[in-house]
């Protein structure tokens, strides 16, 4: 069974979040369908995006946001998983990221697959695909702040470099 082949009830999920009020629940629930643990780094990234009160968890409204975010990503994933394999291979990743406006070399796609292929399958699972896009977006945002003339080149000092990295990790 693949993640997107199983319909999941929002209210059922929220009930479970309430009962054990913790990210670890969401962590488990998001794995529904694949029966593999959802990338914990991705879960933390997503929770921190919606956790406006900074409590390390989400309330009902925030959870609704998380749920919409995940289902939006499911649709994107489905669109680019052309062969319906439940994984994004290098060519599918290339089409997805090109669609998002990234211009990256063939060589760099190998690097991306190597970095985000947590299951060591030579391709990227749903949660790792989200993670790949989040990280790429953050790094690109930081780079753009320095690349004021938008020529794709920046010159930074050691401490500027450290600040850039701290913005992402
Ligand atoms: Ca595929
Ligand atoms: Ca520049």
Structural description of this entry:
It contains eight helices and no strands. It has helices at residues 10-20, 23-29, 40-50, 60-80, 90-99, 106-116, 126-146, 158-166. Helix 1 packs antiparallel against helix 2. The protein binds calcium ion (CA) (2 copies).
Strand content: under 5%
Q: Whole-number average pLDDT? A: 83
Which ligands does the model contain, each kind named once?
calcium ion
Q: Mind describing the biggest β-sheet?
A: none
The oligomeric status of these chains comes to: single chain
The value of Rg in angstroms is 17 Å
Please work out how many helical segments DSSP would assign.
8
How far do the termini sit from each other? 33 Å
Would you identify the regions where 5 or more consecutive residues have pLDDT less than 50? 1-7
**SSE order:** HHHHHHHH
Organism: Oncorhynchus tshawytscha (Chinook salmon)
InterPro entries: EF-hand-dom_pair (IPR011992), EF_Hand_1_Ca_BS (IPR018247), EF_hand_dom (IPR002048), Peflin/Sorcin_CaBP (IPR051426)
GO molecular function: calcium ion binding; calcium-dependent protein binding
Main location: membrane
